[in-house]
Amino acid sequence: MPVIETKDGSNTLYVQEIDECYHSTFGAIQESEHIFIGSGLNFCTKNNISVLEIGFGTGLNAFLTMIETEKSNKIIDYQTIELYPITTSQAKELNYCDFLGNKALFAELHSCEWNKRLKINDCFYFTKIKSDFSVIEKIPNFDVCFFDAFSPEKQYEMWTENRFELLFEHADNGAVLTTYCAKGQVRRNMQQAGFIVERLSGPVGGKREILRATKTLNRHKNQDNMSCV
Ligand SMILES: C[S@@+](CC[C@H](N)C(=O)[O-])C[C@H]1O[C@@H](n2cnc3c(N)ncnc32)[C@H](O)[C@@H]1O
Question: Which atom of ligand 1 is nearest to the CA of 149?
Answer without folding.
Answer: 10
